[in-house]
Design a protein that fits this description.
By secondary structure, the chain is an alpha/beta fold. The protein is built from 13 helices and 26 strands. Helix 1 packs across helix 3 and helix 4 crosses helix 5.
Length: 549
């Protein structure tokens, strides 16, 4: 280990490649990346010095092939170290990368290739079938670079690109948001922005604060997602630390992978904590080297259970692709029985407003708006949506970025996540957060996963439909459905109990374990006509007056 530098690297007026070179020369023998072993591959460890050699080789190949400033190349690699090496090499030449989700359909990939005007698709042998489907349906010709090819040569580019004037403002990545409706939007990200994301992560504060050249960050989230592909990746480089990425999240190998790689921090998102608790027994693996878990979306009912069982604190954070200045609920006492996600910090102002843009009182629900400051609102934010200047300005209306997150801010400025604004069900004049019902149902031992959404109701405008995956071999019976209804009815306001309960075998999810509610009933399917659905609307009675409502 090179101990010549004990301080984190400075990002001012730097590019991603410049910072990586500084890290590689400061901590050459430190481990840059680890890929845990699988059934067919051994564990891969790559030092900063060896990573730099491979970056230089990729950069040479790109330059020789004619790629440079203003070009975009798409990466379809999954969680491989090559994703990061190629990113650094490309960024050094002014090339922007467009990460793709390997679980996408051919049409989804084609849309992004067209929208981004990518001129090269970089992939590997694991995605041959998807590549073949793309080639059959894509009307344009696009060069493909196979990183597993023995030739290891980047296809020639017919334009003479330049490699001059790469600045912190230059585009480094184009990340597509996984929107719940319509086509995804391309978020333009600069070197400056990505470095600020990493800087925000490394400096969250105790107990999260990254140690210099001592932390190993286990992040099972996909490389095409900002969490792993930018935030933890850049944060690791700035502190001479190691990013650990399994190919996919696996509950069965979770603790063993963490033990084998000597991880000190792990990341979670979505249903990860729930799945770990419900599928794993007590482990005899020594977990004393793990400092904490870091993520978003742990259910309050499971938060304490996890910490008591494994003696590992879980710290909830907030960030987003467009404004990734992280906040974290790390102050003691941590409010683990709530949906607390942190307070505003230096460089990130926050206010909570109603539908008319008026700031709401402390303790009231509203949409979370963010900015850097009144004078420089967009500092530390994405550069805009590709080809959608109007949508960019709408998102920034009034000088604040509209997150679409419904939150509550208390008198101490602690923020509590309620739901995505679009996941509010309006029933008989009451705004009901789908997440609140989902959290309540997940407390039940027989519920493995759940999604709540609105269905039309002739009397109440909308009614609540709860789609539930049962754990184990539980029978899909009306008796069990009524038991689940009562579970919610006894814990929440009567109108928040599900009017309908539908048992399902699966829910459509993204690679980050987010449920895609808009894909649950394609082709205008009526969920109320599905088998294993049960109607409990008549049981929704005001508890104090015993009146149906």
């Amino acid at each position: 280990m090179n101990s010549a530098k004990s301080e984190m690297l400075n990002i001012k007026n730097k590019t991603i490649g410049g910072v990586f070179f500084e890290a590689a020369t400061t901590w050459p023998e430190a481990i840059f990346f680890i890929s845990p072993k699988t059934l067919v591959t051994p564990m891969l460890e790559l030092s900063y010095s060896k990573a730099l050699k491979r970056v230089n080789a990729y950069e040479h190949n790109f330059k020789k092939a004619g790629y440079g400033s203003g070009d975009r190349v798409a990466l379809l690699l999954g969680n491989r170290v090559e994703h990061y090496l190629i990113k650094i090499a490309a960024n050094n030449l002014g090339i922007s990368i467009v990460p793709l989700n390997p679980d996408s359909s051919p049409s989804e990939v084609i849309y992004i290739l067209n929208d981004s005007n990518s001129i090269l698709l970089i992939s590997d042998k694991n995605h041959i079938d998807l590549l073949n489907d793309i080639n059959k349906k894509y009307s344009k010709y696009i060069e493909v670079f196979d990183v597993d090819s023995l030739k290891n040569l980047v296809p020639k580019h017919d334009k003479n690109s330049n490699w001059m004037n790469i600045t912190p403002k230059s585009e480094s990545s184009l990340l597509y948001t996984s929107g719940t409706t319509g086509h995804p939007k391309g978020c333009i990200m600069s070197h400056e922005y990505e470095l600020m994301c990493g800087d925000s992560y490394r400096s969250i504060g105790p107990p999260v604060q990254l140690a210099i050249n001592k932390d190993r960050i286990f992040n099972p989230l996909p490389s095409f997602h900002i969490n792993a592909g930018v935030v933890t990746f850049i944060g690791s480089i700035l502190t001479g630390n190691c990013l650990i990425q399994p190919m996919r999240f696996s509950a069965s190998t979770w603790w063993q992978d963490i033990k084998d790689t000597k991880a000190t921090i792990f990341h979670y998102l979505g249903v990860v904590i729930s799945v770990i608790l419900k599928t794993l027994n007590e482990t005899d693996v020594d977990l004393s080297f793990i400092r904490l878990g870091l993520g978003a979306g742990v259910e309050p009912a499971l938060h304490r259970e996890f910490e008591d069982k494994f003696q590992i604190p879980l710290v909830e954070i907030w960030g987003m692709t467009e404004m990734c200045r992280i906040i974290a609920a790390c102050d003691e006492p941590r409010l683990i029985h709530t949906r607390a996600m942190g307070r505003p910090r230096k460089g990130l102002e926050i206010k909570v407003v109603d539908d008319n843009g008026k700031e709401v009182p402390h303790g009231s629900q509203g949409e979370m708006l963010t900015r850097h400051s009144e004078k420089t609102p967009r500092k530390g934010a994405f550069s805009g949506y590709l080809g959608k200047p109007q949508e960019t300005e709408i998102a920034w209306r009034g000088g604040w970025f509209h997150t679409g997150d419904t939150v509550i801010m208390d008198q101490t400025k602690m923020l509590y996540f309620v739901d995505r604004k679009k996941n509010i069900i309006r029933r008989a004049g009451e705004n009901v957060a789908a997440a609140e019902i989902e959290n309540c149902l997940l407390e039940h031992s027989l519920v493995l996963a759940v999604a709540c959404l609105a269905v039309p109701d002739s009397i109440r405008e909308e009614e609540i439909l709860s789609c539930i995956i049962l754990s184990g071999n539980s029978l899909k019976s009306e008796i069990l459905a009524k038991n689940l209804f009562t579970h919610v009815y006894n814990r929440l306001a009567y109108f928040k109990a599900p009017g309908w309960i539908l048992f399902v075998d699966e829910l459509p999810i993204t690679s980050t374990q987010k449920i895609l509610k808009h894909k649950m009933f394609p082709n205008n399917e009526d969920p109320l006509m599905k088998p294993n659905i049960f109607d409990f609307r008549d049981l929704k009675i005001r508890k104090n007056r015993k009146e149906k409502h």
